[in-house]
Amino acid sequence: MAILEASEIRVSYGKVRALKGVSLRIERGQFVGLIGPNGSGKSTLLDTISGLVSDWTGSLFYEGEDISTLTPAQRVDRGLIHCPERRHLFPFMSVQDNLLLGSFSRSARGYIDENLSFVFSLFPILKEKRNDQAKTLSGGQAQMLALGRAILSNPKLLMLDEPMLGVAPVLRKEFSNALNKLRDKDISVLITEQELFLTMKDTEIIHVLQDGVFTHSGSTDEYRLKQDIEGLYFSNKNKG
Question: What pTM does this model have?
Answer without folding.
Answer: 0.88
